Amino acid sequence: MTTPRHDSTATEQVGAAAFALWRPRLAVPALARPRGGIRVLVLGCLALAALTLLLPSTPTYDPWAWIVWGREVISGHLSTTTGPSWKPLPVVFTAVFALAGSASPALWLIVARAGGFLALVFSYRLSRRLGGPLAGIIAVAALMLVNFFARAAFLGDSEGLLIAFTLCAAELHLVGRRRDAVLAGFGAALLRPEAWLFVGLYGLWLFWREPSLRLLLVGLGIAVPALWLGPELWGSGNAFRASARAQQVVPGSPGAAADPTQALLDRAWPLVLMPVRIGAALAIFGAVWMRRRIESRAVLLIAGAAALWFAEVIVMANNGYSGNVRYLLAPSALVCVLGGVGLARLVSLVPAGRRGALRVAAGIAVVAVLVPYSFEPARLLELDAHAIKTEARINGAISDAVRLAGGSAAVLACGKPTIGNLQVTPLVWELHAHLKDVGYIAPPRAVAFFAEPARRGAGLPRAQLKGGGYEARGVAGVWHVLKRCGARS
Questions:
Q1: Measured distance CA(118)–CA(124) in Å, rounded
Q2: 185 in Cβ contact with 202 (< 8 Å)
Q3: How far apart (Å, rounded) are the C-alpha atoms in residues 195 and 122?
Q4: pTM attached to this predicted model
Q5: Which of 270, 262, 232, 263 has its CA nearest to residue 88?
Q6: φ/ψ (deg, to 5) at 482
Q7: pLDDT tens-digit map of 225-251
Q8: Longest dimension (CA), the chain
Q9: By the 8 A CB rule, do 181 and 203 touch?
Q10: Distance of CA 312 to the CA centre of its chain
Q11: pLDDT digit string (tens) for 185-240?
């Protein structure tokens, strides 16, 4: 007598189908192949970044300060009493680049822009690993359209590198290369303090799980605070000067708002396209449904990291820090990864059809849905390109303005030179001076460089200089050069 066969319940059948559709098709991970692969990626991105120097190029305010500090580190006369907050990793690069003299700014731009390209590469790789090629394509497109991402990378800010290190660390962990993952996390920790929490927790977990890494982890645990605080102690006498500087909130930033939390949420919400946010929610829902799988746990960890990073920025903005939109780019990149995974999984619910035609059509439809939401971010990208070109023209004319004023020695001998506040750092580089030697409020004796007030980075309004005994030396590009070197008034 045969045992009766019990058919599965409808719930079990639906669960099994959902499991089969949701499970990612994992290919051979690229980072599990020979180590030369990642080197090729880095070299390719560096080469591509070098080509972008054919476009109008300049660092912006903070990167110019890092370039100046790199030169000062090499000379042994670091001064960080004024300027932006200290960042260790950029100055490690710029100190080396200082040996190349006037090529240092261009070399840093290559590194920063390569970081942006690598951020796109690793967003594709991580999303593909969790959701397939379509997930990777969506994640890359979404990250490219995140407001300020491209602008930050092209102007030499460190957000591209930060995102690249963060996503690279996540993928390295997934393929079991935990030593390399913690080193990538170390790179992120030298770029933003928000990364310290994640790197610290991961380090503690590895300290327990991987005894062979304990010596490395202790060394990195000492190096992070030493590289953040030590140079500030050397350059300003105050190891916590960077934190104090970061709490000088810029008017108009979320930290200066009556409700910093609401101001940050208002700025964070439009950073990622609406369909991508929906895709992220779908990815999280699917991961909760199948929470026992390794890939699902990875999705939940990425989602938790994004939420915690946002929360860190909110907490800091409510405690005196600016909450600049740049600080939200890294968690936004994590949301883009999740969005790609979720939308790709949505497409996988469509029956394949003959030779996969139905699923291909569904993928095209999902990508098409993203297009209308891309119009406004694309317009902002166009505005960013114009702003980059304008800033390159403004900063590029500073060297001509200094020559018109008689050269670096003559400018510094006249008094504390004056320029628009956003151009203080490139002028310091041109003068071979310290940041404390240049200001943006005219003293009684000084060489003054000012642009028309309507221009970006405009310096002193013309009305402040009329009748003040200044000698007009001429115009260099956008810069009017005035000089007043007589007795103090």
A1: 10
A2: yes
A3: 17
A4: 0.89
A5: 232
A6: -120, 150
A7: 999 999 999 999 999 888 888 777 677
A8: 116
A9: no
A10: 16
A11: 999 999 999 999 999 999 999 999 999 999 999 999 999 999 999 999 999 999 98
Q: Are 397 and 479 in contact (CB under 8 A)?
A: yes
Question: Residue 234 has which token pair?
Answer: 């050397």
C-alpha 115/C-alpha 126 separation (Å) is: 16
Q: Which residue is associated with the tokens 């927790």?
A: 201
Instruction: Look up tokens 């979320």; give the residue.
Output: 254
Instruction: Give bridge partners of residue 476 from the DSSP assignment.
Output: 479
Could you report the per-residue pLDDT of 147-167, keeping only the tens digit for each?
A: 999 999 999 999 999 999 999
Angle between the 274-289 and 357-373 helix axes, to the nearest 10 degrees? Answer: 130
Three-state secondary structure string covering the chain: CCCCCCCCCHHHHHHHHHHHHHCCCCCCCHHHCCCHHHHHHHHHHHHHHHHHHHCCCCCCHHHHHHHHHHHHHHHCCCCCCCCCCCCHHHHHHHHHHHHHHHHHHHHHHHHHHHHHHHHHHHHHHHHHHHHCHHHHHHHHHHHHCCCCHHHHHHCCCCHHHHHHHHHHHHHHHHCCCHHHHHHHHHHHHCCCCCHHHHHHHHHHHHHHHCHHHHHHHHHHHHHHHHHHHHHHHHHHCCCCHHHHHHCCCCCCCHHHCCCHHHHHHHHHHHHCCHHHHHHHHHHHHHHHHCCCCHHHHHHHHHHHHHHHHHHHHHHHHCCCCCCCHHHHHHHHHHHHHHHHHHHHHHHHCCCCCHHHHHHHHHHHHHHHHHHHHCHHHHHHHHHHHHHHHHHHHHHHCHHHHHHHCCCHHHHHHHCCCECCHHHHHHHHHHHCCCHHHCECCCCCCEEEEECCCCCCCCCCCHHHCCCCCCEEEEEECCEEEEEECCCCC
In the numeric block, the tokens 């990538």 are attached to 184
Which tens digit of pLDDT belongs to each residue from 403-447? 999 999 999 998 899 888 889 999 999 999 999 999 887 777 889
CA dihedral of 251, 255, 259, 264, whole degrees rounded to 10: 110
Round the CA-based radius of gyration of the chain to a whole number and report it.
26
Is the distance from CB of 130 to CB of 171 less than 8 angstroms?
Answer: no
Residue with tokens 């699917």: 286
Instruction: Please choose, from the candidates 205, 345, 350, 331, the residue with its C-alpha nearest in 3D space to the C-alpha of residue 287.
Output: 345
Identify residue 284 by its one-letter amino acid code.
I
